[in-house]
């Protein structure tokens, strides 16, 4: 258990001053509201890579130590760490198996805990929810959830919830959240909102983070700056196979380097293998991972293409990102467009009754795709490599890239 993802989430890591202050605030919030007559909720916001999961990991460890301390106000509390992401849950459970006071059974998927406690007509004290933007916001019979909103279901079962929320990481209509929707939902509850600012994951300068944020936000394609490469290995490729070879080389040198892609290529949940082909590049999508080891840590996945479903929440050293067919350059060459007709991820856009306005649904599809790009672009600690399927976008990116490296 010496990989960087586990080290990052270890409760024995020294938190920054900002993180330590937030952990202290969270513990005080919990102690203040643990015996309230109605649930209370602390919402931690922040962009991808700002250390939200680090805060939660250390907070939960402290809560579990307090639960076993007879002198603590939180003695004998029943607490759970919840995450609706099977790959991330594996990592947390692996950490729990090696640390005193943490049990794997305290780390659960929300549906499992909700169904279990409802059956027993039981409650719990404190819930810590990582990636709360992945909580279901509608029934999902496939996953055995028959309520209408997982966040509300959890609030009915506990005294205090601490959640991390990033509306730029919402990826599916069945987990469709916006900040406005969340605030409206939480009106009846005691609540506190706090925000993390500093980017910890990417060793990149602010100009590159700003470039990514515009690319996936207002879709403006800002000029590439020479400073991009000063502290971070940022590259644009005109050949996807050459990008793959570069990622394989980085993986052999430093490990945890993978190819990932946006939607736009054949992908069906039928148990078969579906390939992404770009010229000489030809690799299958990630396969369902039945092991206890997260996908990114399996050596053989260097020969697969990762997706948002296997990479969200994880740190990789190097990421080679394929921007698939839906990601295009606008006719005037200034903006990014999302062609929703070329989306192949049908699971993300299943119908929901409360999104009946065609324009709202179209806007949601565009935003979910931009969110996925943002998530994938911010996976790499040491480097980000890009290849664009769209010829016009590929040419534009390569022209600017060659201008700053020559």
Write up what this structure looks like.
InterPro entries: P-loop_NTPase (IPR027417), SLFN_3-like_DNA/RNA_helicase (IPR018647). It is a single chain. The chain is an alpha/beta fold and 406 residues long. It folds into two domains: 4-195, P-loop containing nucleotide triphosphate hydrolases (Rossmann fold, 3-Layer(aba) Sandwich); 206-405, no CATH class. It has helices spanning 4-9, 17-33, 52-67, 86-96, 110-120, 150-155, 179-185, 206-216, 240-254, 308-311, 358-377, 391-405, and strands at residues 40-45, 79-83, 107-108, 126-130, 160-165, 190-195, 233-237, 257-261, 275-278, 281-284, 305-306, 316-323, 327-329, 336-338, 380-388. The strands form four sheets. Strands 3-2-4-5-1-6 form a six-stranded parallel beta sheet. The protein has a five-stranded parallel beta sheet with strand order 7-15-12-8-11, with helices on both faces. Strands 9-10 form a two-stranded antiparallel sheet. Strand 2 (79-83), helix 4 and strand 3 form a beta-alpha-beta unit. Helix 2 packs across helix 3 (52-67) and helix 8 (206-216) runs antiparallel to helix 11. The protein is globular and about 65 Å long. The two termini are 42 Å apart.
């Amino acid at each position: 258990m010496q990989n960087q993802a586990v080290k990052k989430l270890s409760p024995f890591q020294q938190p920054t001053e900002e993180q330590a202050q937030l952990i202290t605030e969270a513990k005080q919030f919990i102690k203040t509201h643990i015996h309230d007559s109605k649930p209370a909720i602390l919402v931690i916001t922040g962009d991808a890579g700002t250390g939200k999961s680090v805060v939660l990991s250390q907070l939960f460890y402290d809560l579990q130590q307090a639960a076993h301390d007879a002198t603590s106000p939180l003695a004998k509390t029943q607490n759970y760490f919840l995450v609706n992401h099977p790959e991330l849950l594996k990592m947390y459970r692996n950490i729990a198996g090696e640390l005193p006071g943490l049990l794997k059974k305290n780390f659960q998927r929300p549906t499992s805990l909700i169904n279990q406690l409802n059956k027993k007509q039981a409650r719990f004290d404190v819930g810590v929810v990582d990636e709360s933007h992945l909580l279901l916001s509608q029934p999902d019979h496939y996953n055995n959830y028959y309520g209408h909103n997982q966040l509300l279901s959890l609030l009915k079962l506990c005294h205090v919830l601490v959640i991390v929320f990033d509306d730029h990481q919402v990826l599916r209509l069945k987990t469709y959240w916006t900040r406005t929707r969340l605030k409206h939902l939480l009106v009846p509850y005691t609540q506190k909102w706090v925000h993390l600012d500093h980017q910890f994951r990417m060793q990149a300068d602010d100009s590159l983070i700003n470039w990514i944020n515009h690319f996936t936000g207002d879709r403006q394609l800002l000029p590439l700056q020479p400073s991009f490469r000063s502290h971070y290995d940022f590259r644009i490729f005109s050949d996807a196979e050459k990008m793959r070879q570069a990622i394989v080389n980085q993986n052999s040198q430093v490990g945890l380097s993978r190819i990932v892609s946006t939607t736009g290529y054949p992908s069906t949940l039928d148990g078969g293998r579906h390939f992404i082909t770009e010229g000489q590049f030809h690799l299958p999508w990630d396969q369902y991972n039945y092991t206890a080891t997260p996908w990114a840590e399996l050596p053989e996945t260097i020969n697969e293409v990762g997706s948002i479903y296997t990479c969200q929440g994880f740190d990789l050293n190097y990421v080679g990102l394929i921007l698939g067919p839906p990601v295009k350059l606008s006719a005037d060459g200034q903006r990014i467009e999302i062609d929703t007709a070329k989306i192949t991820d049908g699971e993300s856009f299943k119908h929901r009754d409360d999104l009946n306005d065609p324009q709202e649904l179209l806007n949601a599809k565009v935003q979910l795709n931009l969110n996925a790009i943002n998530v994938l672009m911010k996976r790499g600690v040491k480097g980000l490599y890009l290849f664009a399927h769209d010829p016009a976008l590929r040419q534009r990116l390569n022209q600017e890239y060659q201008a700053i490296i020559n």
